[in-house]
Write a structure and sequence with these properties.
This protein is mostly helical. About 60% of the residues lie in helices and about 5% in strands. The longest helix has about 35 residues. The protein is elongated and about 95 Å long. It starts with a strand and ends in a 7-residue tail after the last helix.
């Protein structure tokens, strides 16, 4: 394998001649062989957008020669488009508050820009990863700003997935509006309701998720970009600090703004904790819905789509695999919320050193939640009600007598249940029709009356 020689403050070393990354990435590859997870592609693309905004600002203000700036901009465009993705090999878990990832992007942009010049990779006298690509920047303002941009795009993707799930649940709410069933509390039979109402409760929870994911984007729009190392802007021209935010806003189409207190934005990561908490709330709802679907499927009240064989030894067994998978996705998001919380709390002084793990956890949660919502929405669309099974449980449930309390009172209702037990019958609805009259029973237990929010005199 051909090599090229590069140097940094620690000395020299050889790197593969064909690699776009350089010595800083090489050292990080050796230092952090921690997991099989690489830096999220969404974060890499967001970093390229930040680098492009910086290059545009520096070009317009005269800090970069036009030919160098144009080459940097072209290289950034390629990365944003998903090209050169194999040139970002670093482990997502790394020390240095994201410095290794920032340097990886600097080196790839620089060497691709050199190639566009017709120069050899590693010819940093002409175009340098730090002197040019990273001009007026620090990892400490670039990395958190890019993470916020990536998270905003992730939230928008999640929002559309949550909307799809809400729509699927609302369609079933209407489809099952007339299917009466028994509600359940504490895994015991409760008062009667409709199957549509059960789906409506899920739809309502998901609607809140949709609103929360939309609103929490606002928390991420305030950036410390231009603040350099600790938010004071040391080393960056004042005019650049204001210009670079404008450029990034134009490039992303997002309502980004410069923080009024960049020192505070640099030193704290609480906004990520707030957003992660909202993602956790969404995960909680998905797990709850999935658990209820599994129970209703076991009882036979609904029929879930048959997707795959459920056992390697039991012929004919089919499992509720989508609710099971979505439950696992939700548990991952809940676990990631703890990671975001812990990493944000362990920052020291003027930076949060553990942003690489925070970013990995947050972006994974956004991705996995979006996938889970889309999978569950498709599954919900194919759910069928077993109306006969629902009515079977309904007619035999002792709790339906609760619907008649306004008419007969508690003591007589209790007496009716005692008479029912003594009769040896199994269909309480039919028994009540004999005792109270079929017309009263049918009217009281009609779907629209069960869901009418209280009774009318």
């Amino acid at each position: 394998m051909n090599k090229r020689l590069e140097s940094d403050m620690l000395g020299q070393r050889e790197v593969p001649a064909e690699a776009y990354w350089g010595i800083h990435t090489s050292r990080a590859l050796e230092n952090f062989p921690l997991s099989s997870r690489q830096v999220a592609p969404e974060l890499i693309r967001a970093l390229a957008l930040v680098k492009k905004a910086a290059a545009q600002a520096n070009l317009e203000l005269g800090y970069l020669p036009a030919d160098i700036a144009r080459a940097i901009l072209a290289a950034c465009d390629e990365i944003v488009a998903g090209k050169l993705s194999d040139q970002f090999p670093l482990d997502a878990l790394q020390g240095g508050a994201g410095t290794s990832t920032n340097m990886n992007v600097n080196e790839v942009v620089a060497n691709r820009a050199l190639e566009l010049f017709g120069s050899a990779r590693g010819d940093y006298q002409r175009l340098h990863p730090l002197e040019h690509v990273n001009l007026h920047q620090s990892t400490n303002d670039v990395y958190p700003s890019a993470l916020k941009v990536a998270a905003i795009f992730g939230l928008r993707e999640l929002g559309s997935a949550v909307a799809a799930l809400q729509g699927a649940l609302q369609r079933k709410e209407k489809e099952f509006a007339a299917v009466v069933k028994i509600g359940r509390t504490e895994l015991q039979e409760a008062v009667p309701m409709t199957l549509g109402a059960e789906f409506s409760a899920w739809a309502e929870a998901v609607a809140r998720d949709r609103w929360r994911t939309s609103k929490c984007e606002e928390r991420l729009r305030v950036l410390n970009l231009g603040g350099t190392a600790i938010g004071t802007g040391l080393g960056a021209p004042r005019e650049y600090i204001f210009r670079v935010i404008e450029k990034l806003r134009e490039l992303t189409g997002l309502g980004l703004s410069r923080g009024e207190n960049p020192v505070g934005e640099t030193a704290n990561a609480d906004v990520f904790v707030e957003v992660s908490g909202i993602l956790k709330a969404c995960a909680v709802n998905l797990v709850k819905i999935s658990g209820d679907l599994r129970m209703m499927n076991m009882l036979g009240e609904v029929r879930l789509p048959l997707l795959q064989a459920g056992s390697s030894i039991m012929p004919g067994k089919v499992n509720p695999v989508v609710p099971e998978a979505v439950t696992q996705a939700g548990l991952v998001v809940m676990s990631n919320d703890l990671l975001v919380t812990e990493t944000a709390s362990r920052g020291s002084g003027q930076i949060v050193e553990f942003l690489p793990l925070l970013g990995c956890a947050l972006l994974e949660s956004l991705q996995i939640l979006g996938s889970a919502c889309r999978i569950l929405a498709r599954h919900i669309d194919e759910v069928q009600a077993d109306e006969a099974r629902c009515r079977y449980y309904f007619n035999r449930s002792r709790t339906i007598v609760t619907a008649f309390l306004p008419v007969v009172g508690y003591e007589r209702a209790n007496g009716l249940l005692q008479d029912f037990d003594a009769s040896g019958q199994t269909d309480l609805r039919a028994f009540l029709a004999e005792k109270l009259g079929a017309e009263l029973v049918d009217r009281t237990l009609a779907p629209h009356n069960l869901m009418s929010l209280g009774y009318r005199k």
